[in-house]
């Protein structure tokens, strides 16, 4: 497959008999362009997910008393901006032919949380004709430090200083070539 991005398309019309009986030629041209996409999280720092704990109580408000500490999963908001996927002016478009990978990293270790932007997990445009696509990823607290964290690196073993990274594989950037863009945030 050879991309045509960055080239021009031209059309010419030869009219052998116009309204005055003469032969004329008219034409027009346009550039075939693509856009370089970007990816970003909604924050640069996320709280560390935590587990539920009976007996660890917080005051809800002055008249309600206390409640046990509930589990604190963290929602990571991924935003892909790529005008190339904005194909319908009045409808919500989706990205379903590339990959956006969300990973957790600690030092040289990493684990993949989810791959989105494919047919299994398409990303939906936030509003018609915007070219902005969003997806929420929940990072769960599953087991926590008591099961071997930090030596066992799993999704449920997120510690302060761990990094969440998102990588977007742009199929066609502004030059018509594939490109990979990333963003990252830390847990604190």
Overall mean pLDDT: 81
Derived from helix and strand composition plus strand pairing, the structural class reads mainly beta
Instruction: Kindly report the spatial arrangement of strands forming the biggest sheet.
Output: 3-7-12-11-8
What would you call the shape? elongated
Helix content: under 10%
Order of helices and strands: EEEEEEEEEEEEEE
Task: Give a written overview of the molecule.
The chain starts with 7 loop residues before the first strand and ends with a strand. It is built from no helices and 14 strands. A hairpin with a 2-residue loop joins strand 9 (100-106) and strand 10. 0% of the residues lie in helices and 47% in strands. The protein is mainly β. It has strands at residues 8-15, 24-31, 38-41, 45-46, 53-61, 65-69, 74-81, 94-95, 100-106, 109-116, 123-125, 132-139, 163-170, 179-187. The model is unreliable at 143-147 (pLDDT under 50).
Write a brief caption for the model.
The protein has no helices and 14 strands. By secondary structure, the chain is mainly beta.
Describe the structure using short key phrases:
14 strands; 188 residues; five-stranded antiparallel β-sheet; mainly beta; five-stranded mixed β-sheet
Question: What's the SSE blueprint?
Answer:
Elements: E1 8-15, E2 24-31, E3 38-41, E4 45-46, E5 53-61, E6 65-69, E7 74-81, E8 94-95, E9 100-106, E10 109-116, E11 123-125, E12 132-139, E13 163-170, E14 179-187
Parallel strand pairs: 4-14
Antiparallel strand pairs: 1-2, 3-7, 5-6, 7-12, 8-11, 9-10, 9-13, 11-12, 13-14
């Amino acid at each position: 497959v050879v991309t045509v991005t960055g080239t021009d398309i031209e059309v010419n019309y030869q009219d052998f008999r116009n309204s005055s009986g003469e032969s004329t030629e008219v034409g027009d041209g346009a550039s075939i362009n693509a856009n370089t996409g970007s990816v970003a999280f909604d924050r640069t720092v996320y709280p560390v997910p935590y587990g539920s704990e009976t007996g660890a109580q917080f005051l809800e408000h002055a008249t309600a008393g206390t409640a046990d500490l509930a589990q604190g999963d963290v929602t990571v908001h991924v935003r892909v901006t790529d005008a190339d996927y904005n194909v319908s002016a009045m409808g919500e478009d989706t990205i379903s032919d590339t990959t956006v990978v969300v990973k957790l990293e600690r030092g040289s270790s990493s684990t993949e949380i989810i791959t989105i932007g494919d047919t299994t997990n398409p990303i939906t445009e936030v509003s018609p004709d915007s070219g902005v696509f969003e997806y929420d990823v929940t990072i769960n607290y599953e087991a926590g430090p008591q099961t071997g964290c930090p030596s066992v690196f799993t999704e449920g073993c997120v510690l302060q200083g761990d990094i969440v990274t998102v990588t977007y594989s742009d199929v066609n950037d502004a030059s018509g070539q594939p490109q990979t863009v990333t963003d990252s945030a830390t847990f604190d």
